[in-house]
Each structure stands twice: as structure tokens, then as C-alpha cells.
Amino acid sequence: MFVFFLLGLGFCFVCLGLLLICFGTQGYCTNINNTIAFEKSVMSEVICHDVMAVQKPFVFSQNARLSSACKPTKMLQQLVAKHFDVEEQTEITTCLEAKLSPVGSCQKGDFVFLKETGLKLCQVWLHVAIGPDVYSMVSTWELLELDSTACHGIFVQAEGAYFIETSNLACAVAHMPFKPKQVKVIIPMQKR
User: Fold this and answer.
1) Which domain holds residue 94?
2) Using CA atoms, how far apart are residues 129 and 118, in angstroms rounded to an integer?
3) Is the pTM of this model over 0.90?
4) Cis upstream peptide for 177 (omega within 30°)
5) Total domain count for the chain?
């Protein structure tokens, strides 16, 4: 029984939002004499959960997309419709988190590097989808100082925010506030 809960902990946490306690080590379970049958039952249970997980939409997608689709506020709907020159009746969805292309995710407040060459850093404000196209509203940050090993840099906030295609975001990075309107960011290996 202990093995079953070890294999199913992640699934239980995702589905139920809590972790179940296993009483197998406290003597509440009987000894298992036929381990082959037990192992087969555990394996079939794990396979069933895995098959169910891969049937969800976008499991293997490498395209940028919203993590979940939410209805935007009326003000955001009008802003997006005006900016992208679409009718207000156009279906627009929003989310604070997006899946990046090909892998990774970022959410509101994260600092992300753009895929283009150089150290172009932005901070995510929100994500919107207009039909199949996904965009992120970001503010730019300019490189102020790069340490001698190129492991981290100090960036200063630039003015303004704009929309870019979410597929242009490379990866979210670890950061910490440094001074007012400045942030220290760890540079990912592919950007060094």
C-alpha cells in the first residue's frame, strides 16, 4: 500500500488539492504475500491515471497558450479590441499565466527574457488570447550592469508597456529587487 501512495501522491495533490496519509507503515495494512499480483494492480492503476492525464487537451502542444481561459473585464476587453483593431464582440480570453513555446510558463509579475538575441528583459503584466493568437502585455527593462562572469545583471525599468506575441518569450528568470526601479536577475545559461 505504501508504494501505491508514493506513485499516486502527485496525482492526488493535483486532483484533490491535498496529500493522503499512508497508514501502511503504522501497521494498519495487512502483509502482502502475493507481491506479483500487488505489483500488477499498482501498475495498472498508475497506467490508468497516466492515460487519463494524456487525454487532456494540449498535453503535447508546444505552442504558446493560456493556462486557462477566463473572461476579461469590460475595460480590458475594450482596451484589447481597440489596440488590435478587432470588434468588441470578438472572443477575447485572458489569464494571468501562460504556457511558453516550446516549454515553460510565466505569470503576472514574472521577469522573462525575449527569444531574440541579446539580453532583452521584460516583466509580464497579463496574457490575452484573440482566437488562436496569444499575446502578452509586458514592460521593458534595460540592462544597466552585467557582472564579470555574466551570471547576473542589474536591469532598470524603462517606460511604457506594450503587447507582444507570447511565442516570443523565452523563459522566466529568478530575480530580486535591487534598488528603486531596479532588479537583479540571474542570466540563464542560453543567454550567457
Assistant:
1) 65-191
2) 27
3) no
4) no
5) 2
